[in-house]
Amino acid sequence: MKSYIDLLKTPGVARILSAQLLARFPGGMLSLAYLLHIEHIFNSYGAAGLVLAATSVGQAVSGPVTSRWMGLWAIRPVLILTTSICALSMATIAFVPLPLVGYMIVGLIGGLSYPPIQPAVRTIYPKMVNSQQLTPLFSLDASAQEIIWIAGPVLVTFVSIQISTVLGIVMAMAFLIFGGAWFISSPEVGRVRIPRSKRRLGVVLARPPVLLATVVGFLLVGSCAAVEAGVVATFGEGGPVAGTVLALWAISSLAGGLLLGHIPVGPWALARRMIVVAVGCALAIFAWDFWSLSAALLVAGLCIAPALAVMFAIVSASVKFSDTAEAYGWVGTGQLIGAAIGSAVAGFLIDSAGAGGAFWTAAGFAAVGAIVPLVFRRAHPDLRGRDASPIPDTEPVPIQPS
Q: Could you point out which of 56, 146, 195, 216 has its C-alpha 20 to 30 Å from the C-alpha of 341?
C-alpha cells in the first residue's frame, strides 16, 4: 500500500483522480435512471430498452471521435461542449414530455455528446507521474472506478424508487455537471496539450496492443454485463440480495486492483488475469445460493480491475502521445458494445434456460477473453523494466499555463 500512498502524495494525483471519478459517476447511474424513468412513463421495459439502446449506440459511436477532437481543439473546449450538450439532453428526458421516438432521439444525442473524461484522464496521467508510477496509477484508477459501480446504482435506485425518477436523473446530471466542472478546472487539464494526430481516424487500431485491448475489453465487459443480468435474474429486482452480491463482486475487483497493481506487466499478464475471471464465472454456473454465488463472484472479481489496468498500460506504452486519447476511445467503444451484446445474449438465454444461462454466457465471454491474449501473445508488450508512458511525438508537445 506504500506505493499507493506515495502516488497520492504526488502533486495533483489525488485531485485529478477524485475529480474524474466524480465526473464519471453518471456512468453507474444513468442506465438505471433512464430505465426506471421511461418504464414509469410508458409502463414498458421494452420502451425503456429502446431508449437505453439509442443512448449506448451514441456513446459507442462518439468515443473515438470526441477523444480525437481533444487533439484538434484541446481538452477543455471539448469537455465543456460535450458536458453542456449531454446535461441538456438529460434535463430534456427528465422534464420534457415526449413520444417514445423523441426520447430515443434525445438519448442518442446524449450518448453522442457523453464527455470523454476517461480518455482525457488516461492521456493526462503519463504527464503527471514518472514511469515507475504509471502502471500503479492505472491500477488505482481501475480499482477506484469500482466505487462508481458500487455506489452509483444503489443511489439512483433508492432515489428513483423512494422519491422520484425525475430526481434520479437530476442527481446523475448534478454529478456530471459538478464533477465535470471540477475536472475541467483542474490545472493538469489546462497544462497538457494533446498534439494533433496526423493519422486518419481508426488507424490507431492497427497497433496490435490497441486492438488486443479493445477485443479483450469487449469480452471482459460483455462477461460482466452477463453476470449482472444473471444475478438480477437469480434474486429478483425487488429485494436487496442482488445488490449485495453485485456490491461484493465490485469490492473484490477493487481489492484485486490494489493488491496486484504493483506487479510488473509481463507478456502473460492479461491472459492470467482473464483466466481467473473465467474460472470465477464458470464456478457461478454451479452456484446454488447467496453464499456460493458470492464466493464464485469474489473469485471472478479479483482480476477484473487488474485486467483493465493491464489494458490501459499496454495501450499507453504502444502508441504515440497524440494517439492516446483516440486509442482509449476505441477501447471504451469496445467495452460499450461488449456490455450491450453481453446483456442481450444473457437476456435471451435467461428467457430460454433460466438464470444459469447468463452465467454460461459470462463464462463463455471470459474464456474467449483468456484465449485471445494467449493466442496473440506477441501483440502483448512486455513492460517489465520498461517505461509505460506513450511514445513521444517527433515534434515538441506544448505545455500551456493553467
A: 146
Q: What does the block give as the cell for 225?
A: 454485463
pLDDT tens, position by position, 182-227 = 999 998 888 888 777 777 877 888 899 999 999 999 999 889 888 8
Q: What is the pLDDT of residues 134-183, one digit of tens each?
A: 878 887 887 777 777 667 777 777 788 788 889 989 999 999 999 999 99
Cell digits of residue 32: 438505471
Contact residues for 181 (Cβ-Cβ < 8 A; gap 6+) = 83
Is the separation of the CB atoms in 118 and 138 below 8 Å? no
Q: Residue type for 157, please?
A: T
Structural domain including 232 reads 199-390
Set of cell numbers at residue 65: 471521435
Q: Look at residues 218, 265, 225 and name the one whose alpha carbon lies nearest to residue 362.
A: 225
The sign of the CA dihedral 259, 265, 270, 271 is negative
> Of 175, 194, 213, which residue constitutes the final position of a domain?
194
Q: How far is Cα 275 from Cα 303, in angstroms, rounded to an integer?
A: 9
Query: 142 burial class (0-12, 13-18, 19+ CB within 10 angstroms)?
Result: buried
The answer to whether residues 42 and 73 belong to one domain is: yes
Rounded to whole angstroms, the Cα distance separating 352 from 66 reads: 39
Co-location of 251 and 186 in the same domain = no
